[in-house]
Amino acid sequence: MADAAATAGAGSSGTRSGSKQSTNPADNYHLARRRTLQVVVSSLLTEAGFESAEKASVETLTEMLQSYISEIGRSAKSYCEHTARTQPTLSDIVVTLVEMGFNVDTLPAYAKRSQRMVITAPPVTNQPVTPKALTAGQNRPHPPHIPSHFPEFPDPHTYIKTPTYREPVSDYQVLREKAASQRRDVERALTRFMAKTGETQSLFKDDVSTFPLIAARPFTIPYLTALLPSELEMQQMEETDSSEQDEQTDTENLPLHINTDDSGAEKENTSVLQQNPSLSGSRNGEENIIDNPYLRPVKKPKIRRKKTSFLLLTSPGLHVPCRADRR
Amino acid sequence: MPPTGLEPARMNRKKGDKGFESPRPYKLTHQVVCINNINFQRKSVVGFVELTIFPTVANLNRIKLNSKQCRIYRVRINDLEAAFIYNDPTLEVCHNESKQRNLNYFSNAYAAAVSAVDPDAGNGELCIKVPSELWKHVDELKVLKIHINFSLDQPKGGLHFVVPSVEGSMAERGAHVFSCGYQNSTRFWFPCVDSYSELCTWKLEFTVDAAMVAVSNGDLVETVYTHDMRKKTFHYMLTIPTAASNISLAIGPFEILVDPYMHEVTHFCLPQLLPLLKHTTSYLHEVFEFYEEILTCRYPYSCFKTVFIDEAYVEVAAYASMSIFSTNLLHSAMIIDETPLTRRCLAQSLAQQFFGCFISRMSWSDEWVLKGISGYIYGLWMKKTFGVNEYRHWIKEELDKIVAYELKTGGVLLHPIFGGGKEKDNPASHLHFSIKHPHTLSWEYYTMFQCKAHLVMRLIENRISMEFMLQVFNKLLSLASTASSQKFQSHMWSQMLVSTSGFLKSISNVSGKDIQPLIKQWVDQSGVVKFYGSFAFNRKRNVLELEIKQDYTSPGTQKYVGPLKVTVQELDGSFNHTLQIEENSLKHDIPCHSKSRRNKKKKIPLMNGEEVDMDLSAMDADSPLLWIRIDPDMSVLRKVEFEQADFMWQYQLRYERDVVAQEESILALEKFPTPASRLALTDILEQEQCFYRVRMSACFCLAKIANSMVSTWTGPPAMKSLFTRMFCCKTCPNIVKTNNFMSFQSYFLQKAENGAVVLENQYLLRLVIELYCLPATCLQPLYPLILKMVVRKLDSCSTMPVAMALLRDVHNLCPKEVLTFILDLIKYNDNRKNKFSDNYYRAEMIDALANSVTPAVSVNNEVRTLDNLNPDVRLILEEITRFLNMEKLLPSYRHTITVSCLRAIRVLQKNGHVPSDPALFKSYAEYGHFVDIRIAALEAVVDYTKVDRSYEELQWLLNMIQNDPVPYVRHKILNMLTKNPPFTKNMESPLCNEALVDQLWKLMNSGTSHDWRLRCGAVDLYFTLFGLSRPSCLPLPELGLVLNLKEKKAVLNPTIIPEAIAGNQEAAVNPSSHTQLVGFQNPEDDHLAKEASCNISAHQQGVKRKADTPLGSPLEPGQILEKNEDSSKVKLKIRFSSSQDEEEIDMDTVHDSQAFISHHLNMLERPSTPGLSKYRPASSRSALIPQHSSGSDGTPTTKPQWNMELARKGTGKEQSPLEMSMHPVAAAPLSVFTKESTSSKHSDHHHHHHHEHKKKKKKHKHKHKHKHKHDSKEKDKEPFTFSSPASGRSIRSPSLSD
């Protein structure tokens, strides 16, 4: 079965092959595609050293291959549409593959592998004739690893570039002027857009469009937006001093741990007991462990507590100054 | 011992001594506060307190504590149920029926109400009766443990809940609660002795949600889960004796940061702000080190906590071992401008930890010592951190502030002495509020009070030297810390309290100097000195004839006699002269050292030893005088107006090295708009080494001068070329350099290395050089310093445009050139490569735009539309719109830009370019916007209210004052309205009407009882709008039954005294009405009410007697009593039907409450009939407890001449200790009284009818005697009087059955 498939094998591995048969009736089309895929699977199996395979397993593998290829197509289409295009380009495919966890770098090597089998062209290929608008120069021939029944390279004018050089604008004043007006334009366009799409306030009763002010909306936690640097600023900060930032993010995570520990500790108190000191220890790494009451673990309730206040009042040694280690 | 120790009345202070005798008949040693449930949803708190007290007198039978807002369920003393009564006269200051609307009256009533619950007078809102079973115990002065269960529902003051309305659990929402308040406000959230002078140790327990943290005073001993593991309890111990007023609490889902430098210091902030917290607090350890070093004393507490919370009451609040800050002080490393401000706040709070928290005050009149010392050491920190120039500038600023305030309002008195409470002797009669209590003070006054206190401390330092000063502080601290480590001994702990006399004594011990005159001048007296100086140079004698006049007649001024330093800069150098200012002599001859010899080219030596070349062509050829300064060291609290020629001011500006002198000369030069002044100012502006603040003020002065010189001004607009040169690109002068605030660092460094820059002081220079030598990794610790320098550069960068925008051309318009220039600055502002945020700079640019706006040309009431918009304004609006909209997308730090935009829009509205409309501001003023935005928006609305006289907006503001969730905003609105009032007392305004008067009156009378500061703010506003007397817009008072009496009296004696009486009476009357409000609908209330009012009246009477006032005969307590009883009866009746169900709160399910009632009746009754009561107390007492005389010194009780006194004393048990101290017998009647009441309890109601009878009789008697105003009222209510015990009983019965 596998052998037969291998010998009769034909078809391409791309998604494009399917689309070309769109003239056939649906069943036909499906069958043809299916057959091609089967051939591919069989040839791959042969290549992997199998001599025979059960029909069911070949079917399964075909099914898998089919869905993998469909997914590539679907995903590539989304990427392409995301960038406002209708035709997927190479980069869309690459991004798709990367996204699907495929190492694209290995692809060229795989395509050029020595033991690969070449599948003959599918029988049903009535290529739509694309009108040759203008021909300029010679089309490039296929490289050796591409089957000859694959489409030809496009006309050279579509990819050949002739770089031209123009003196870049380096006049400081013009640059500053450009940068400034560009930024202004962007800002104005953006704010206008926001104002158009949302609620606005106006300084003039008779005219709401000339100076539209985005309506003031109260925040639930106003201090956060007011105090925290914006993402943009954060980025700048990271760029300027990464070292300091590292340190900050480091500790930033710490209290989160503590917090979650605290709440999680309701169930497993013991784990907290071990965890917390280690956290405080790791903070100042090289130094001795910080003895701060707020970092200490929360105690489990005693069985019976009566008159805490009086007991504590008389118990000695509660006032422990711990300033010795300072400076 | 200085004479201040002689205020005999103020405290019962023993001569010479250790001082402090508590005004309370017991000593508190330990208090437990346990809050076991906090509900954020309902904003409620449930808990208990337990006070351990030692009676200091035998027969202590009632204990008064402070408590406000709290609902008290149960009180037990040593596990026995105790009856208690709750009454708070401050809830409603004046009786609501009254149509009295004059502020004098209110202020007196308010002061009386506050006194009536003042712990420093031994009073309190909560009065607990010691169960009879414990009397014996008490007589042996054995310990009592008072256990009080309480709850707090939706507190309006004291505790502030912040609960954002978002999804999630309370912790996820960032809900938190914290204690807050002005002065002693702890009573708002738990019952305590809310005084700074009652120290005790503390055990604090808070049970909170497991995701929350409770931060409080002292050491966190342990954190324990509750049994269901859902909550945890934080146990705190505070072993250093601390006053209740210094106890605080903050609970929230805080992020915890242990200070990396000091592990015992912990910082807390709200979720997500940790990186900011880390940066903000990174400097704190240095402040610690500084204070510890100068005070040579360790930080007294074993730990320290800082908590940053939202919706803060004040920016900085210091409590024992913890400080609560506004979260808005947090900032990231990108924000330069906020850094010094935040650090100041941190340093301030830390200074108060030593003086204010650890060392507390004995009484309110000693407050100035604490504020003074903490302010003074904070000043030292400023000097060290920001340099001498900054320090001197700050001192000058503070001095100017206090001078301006005192001249405006008439004096701030640091150490008020109240001689026996006579209203006549009121040391602050010029004010519209009483300064007797911190709670009656206007906030502004208090701010100025603090400012003056530290300035006076600095004057003391000038006198005795800093070294001695620090020794004194050290002495105070070391005494206190010795005391604090002792077990309870009352006299030891009082070492932790500072008093004026104790402080002065320390000073004289340490320094051996007599600073009495200084204290007398600045501390015991209010007012500042106002000098006018002028001079003439007598060429023949080569003498400078200086004339110094003083104005000591205007309000807020005082006469100064003593030394005054004058510095004369002559050609040969600078010379100091100390003149003796005396009563009569105005003229002072000062011999000059140098002859006029301007032709000799020689360098001129300056004060600091520097020698400079000067161009002397401007000066008078005959005179060797360059400039003269009066009191250059600011060693007098003064305002100096000195006349000298313009060239002298110019020399002073250019060559005097003292920043204060430079600033003074800039101010003076405003009056000399000449090219020479312009040149001097421009020169100073260009001088990089000149102090940045001087340069900043030079900018503004230059703008003013340019405007005055508008017709003769040549060349480009002032400062433009300068700015271009300093901050713009070389190749294209209209484009500002890209912002790189960091590059200033290298700039400074280079300069320092070359030695080209003389930095402000040596300290800075040294550090900068160090900085330069260090590898980059070591920059971190020196970072603040760089920042500081950067800020200076920045300020001058952004100030110049702001000042430039003030320029006007001949048509009084802002020159087009300037506007284009500013617009260009905005356009080309580029911050992409800058490490720091430029938000403050951009905000300043908007301010500059706003400054450039001039009134619209045609303002003939035409409607402002877009079509007739001025093209310049169009450009400005364009920018503002863009900025404001960008803020929505990329908000700036603290929304500085929004704030500036809102201000600018208001300016445009006000100048008639844009239709005046408050709608925009109102939307920004809503709750939910950042507080800075809200304040800016509200300011605009306030301004609108004033300009457009809008009643609607005023109502809207008043509504917000009453309902806004943020106390600070409410306070701020009042404050802004006071500063920018819609109308004032002498102004006709459509806004001024009766309804408004009533509304404001209601606001200050009862609407703001939960917040002292707010109430005082309301009083301030009322004063600004209507003045002291009855508002003119009110119709003449109709001759109603009730108020008539007062009016009549006022007619009879149109002085302030009847007013005062009326006020006090009112205060005395009203308690009965308050009881309803409190929520303790208990019959006992009424008795307490009576009792309290009785106390006041008795006190009043004492006052009167001493005052020997001929006006009206003294008010007999009985009369008031009667009235009280009447009104309370009415209350009883009214309440009777409705309040039965509320009895569950009942506290006195106690045995002897019947007796208690009768006892109160007795007590009330006794003094009213001197004739009858004469012997009764003595006899009944002696019958029961014959040994009474051993307790008191003279036992004059049996002597008839003391009877009157006795009776009064009896009722006035609570009267201020000062009163007592004036009469040696004070102790005796007190004990007599208490025991007597004991006896009366046993005698039960046999006496009732008897008493009533007497009472009635007496009542009539007094009525005739005094023509009291309440006749009619009393008559109306007379029937109730008879039923009083009965009604009391009947109401009691349900509670007994419980």
UniProtKB/TrEMBL annotation, chain A:
Family to which the UniProt record says this protein belongs: Belongs to the TAF8 family.
Lipoprotein keyword on record: no
Ranges of biased composition (kind: Polar residues): 270-283
Source organism per UniProt: Physeter macrocephalus
Ranges of Low complexity composition bias in the record: 1-19
Keywords tagged on the record: Cytoplasm, Developmental protein, Differentiation, Nucleus, Transcription, Transcription regulation
A GO molecular function held by the record: protein heterodimerization activity
Subunit structure: Component of the TFIID basal transcription factor complex, composed of TATA-box-binding protein TBP, and a number of TBP-associated factors (TAFs), including TAF1, TAF2, TAF3, TAF4, TAF5, TAF6, TAF7, TAF8, TAF9, TAF10, TAF11, TAF12 and TAF13. Interacts with TBP, TAF1, TAF6, TAF10, TAF11 and TAF13. Component also of a small TAF complex (SMAT) containing TAF8, TAF10 and SUPT7L. Forms a heterodimer with TAF10. Interaction with TAF10 is mediated mainly via its histone fold domain while interaction with SUPT7L is via its C-terminal region.
Composition bias, Acidic residues: 236-250
Compartment(s) of residence: Cytoplasm; Nucleus
Protein name: Transcription initiation factor TFIID subunit 8
Domain of life of the native organism: Eukaryota
Gene label: TAF8
GO terms, biological process: cell differentiation; transcription initiation at RNA polymerase II promoter
Coiled coil: none
Stretches the record annotates as Disordered: 1-30, 235-293
First-listed, main subcellular location of the protein, grouped into a coarse class: cytoplasm
From TrEMBL, chain B:
Region (Disordered): 1-23, 1100-1127, 1165-1201, 1234-1298
Subcellular location: Nucleus
Residue stretches of biased makeup (Polar residues): 1179-1201, 1281-1298
Annotated GO CC locations: transcription factor TFIID complex; transcription factor TFTC complex
Residue ranges occupied by any Transcription initiation factor TFIID subunit 2 Ig-like domain in the UniProt entry: 526-644
Keyword Transcription: yes
SUPFAM superfamilies: ARM repeat, Leukotriene A4 hydrolase N-terminal domain, Metalloproteases ('zincins'), catalytic domain
Keyword Transcription regulation in record: yes
Biased composition (Basic residues): 1243-1270
Span of domain Transcription initiation factor TFIID subunit 2 TPR repeats: 646-753, 799-1051
Coiled-coil residues: none
Alphabetical list of Pfam families matching this protein: TAF2_3rd (PF25316), TPR_TAF2_C (PF25577)
Family the entry assigns: Belongs to the TAF2 family.
Record function comment: The TFIID basal transcription factor complex plays a major role in the initiation of RNA polymerase II (Pol II)-dependent transcription. TFIID recognizes and binds promoters with or without a TATA box via its subunit TBP, a TATA-box-binding protein, and promotes assembly of the pre-initiation complex (PIC). The TFIID complex consists of TBP and TBP-associated factors (TAFs), including TAF1, TAF2, TAF3, TAF4, TAF5, TAF6, TAF7, TAF8, TAF9, TAF10, TAF11, TAF12 and TAF13. TAF2 forms a promoter DNA binding subcomplex of TFIID, together with TAF7 and TAF1.
Stated name of the protein: Transcription initiation factor TFIID subunit 2
Gene: TAF2
